[in-house]
Amino acid sequence: MIKKTLNSPLIMTWLDMFVKFGMNIILLPIATIYLAPEELAYYLFIGTLLGIAYLAEGGTNRVVLRATSYFKEGSTVLPNNFEEIQELKSDGKINYKLLGQLVQTSFIIYFMLGIISLVLFFTIGYFTSENLISKQPDIEEAYITFGLLSVFAFLYIMQLRWVGLIQGLGHLARQKRVELVFGLVRIILSIVAIVLGYGVLGVVVAMLLSVVVAHILYKKMFYSYLPKESIQEHQLFSKDILQKLIPSAWKQSVLAWGSYLIYQGTVLLAAQLDDVKLIASYLLTLQVLNLLIRVSNAPAYSYYPNISKAMAKRDTSAFKSLLFRSLKISLGLYILGAIIIYFLGNQILELIGANALLISGSLLVLMLFMYMLELHHVTHATIYTATNHIPFVLPALLSGIAIVVGGWLVIDDYGLWGIVLVQFFVQLSCNNWYPVWLNYKLVKR
């Protein structure tokens, strides 16, 4: 029973997500007790700061995952759309030559992405955090913390390459177990650092130690699944693979920028409201809904390697089965969570003495419905990318820009309602139905 649980991609993905959110849930009360207000603000800004750097990677590891899946199944080419997938020829034996070339080529790609992340970090990141740094009790320590965060961001992006390679080989459950352990270790080290008075710098050092060790372990894990000599013999840079990876990789990256504008743009706009309590309620509601989305979306994410494998084998029946199975579980979990949030959310917060409550009434109903549509289309979009065709770039980017511009135009007259309604109608106009339509076209083939 225990072995079966530990080898379940779905369960391990859920546990990993709970640990990541648990880190914030456990650390936040401790941080509010031991950190000064200026330090607390800097600590809470870390996620936003790293998010800017992570935009450089933009989910490229999914492209690496798909390529690994195809080469593991013996494919001699890397398809870019469903038509090319149907024409694939493979003998089911691992293509060590192309897999070795993928390892080296992906290293070069990720090294460049790491450099881009540093550029973003030291330009946009520094510009947005300079005011916070200047208000820290120890400015020199704050700058050291900032510098170490940049190293963490670079190494974390490099680590994502190994994650894509390992998951592409079909070992998501084991990779998630490792990630789960390091998440727990990071929580413990961060708590100790804060309690002992090392502040934000101590937390960042704990993060840096965990990512260094994880990076080394993931590399060893990848080579433990394959004959190292067979891979290293062909570990050469391939211009052909680069040319195949880049179209999907840059589309995935631009898609991440569009998603950032869609979801983070509303936060930036809401922060301009005069009512501080309303801002706090909105941000708290978003945190709860994002947690619900992540938990509900776990089935699609955990099935993703198998979906990529099914596409590589041109097994449409397996694709259909995995698609509908993940949708049923995801939507069922979301609806259950939405009911609990609506009827019990604020009662639970009042019971624990929280200083902020969730958005209530009809606005909460609208947000719950809007995010259910988001979950539905994101699940379809995630699964459709297994075809290596990513047609969501322009819709995501234009939608993100429309939400930010539209929200800015209505915020003075309609406030939070205006921001939420703009996001709802912009998403409904394209993104909420386009990936769904594309997937059902695949299912009918």
Overview features:
445 residues, mainly alpha, 2 domains, 82% helix, 0% strand
Summarize the structure in short:
With 445 residues, the chain is mainly α. The chain is 82% helix and 0% strand. It has helices spanning 2-6, 9-34, 37-54, 60-72, 82-86, 96-134, 139-168, 172-195, 199-224, 228-232, 239-270, 276-296, 298-312, 316-351, 361-384, 393-429, 434-443.
Write the layout of secondary structure elements.
Elements: H1 2-6, H2 9-34, H3 37-54, H4 60-72, H5 82-86, H6 96-134, H7 139-168, H8 172-195, H9 199-224, H10 228-232, H11 239-270, H12 276-296, H13 298-312, H14 316-351, H15 361-384, H16 393-429, H17 434-443
Helix pairs in contact: 2-8, 2-13, 3-6, 3-7, 4-6, 4-7, 4-11, 4-13, 6-7, 7-9, 8-9, 11-16, 12-14, 12-15, 13-14, 14-15, 15-16, 15-17
Describe this structure in words.
The protein has 17 helices and no strands. The protein has 445 residues and is mainly α. The protein has two domains: 1-237, no CATH class; 250-445, no CATH class. The longest helix has 39 residues, at 96-134. The protein is globular. The model has no long low-confidence stretch (mean pLDDT 79).
Number of strands: 0
Relative strand content: under 5%
Taken in chain order, the helices and strands follow as HHHHHHHHHHHHHHHHH
What percent of the residues sit in helical stretches (DSSP H or I)?
over 70%
Helix-and-strand structural type: mainly alpha
Rg, Å, rounded: 22 Å
Distance between the termini: 39 Å
Mean pLDDT: 79
Oligomeric organization of the protein chains: single chain
Largest sheet descriptor: none
The best one-word shape is globular
Low-confidence stretches: none
Count of structural domains: 2
So how many helices?
Answer: 17
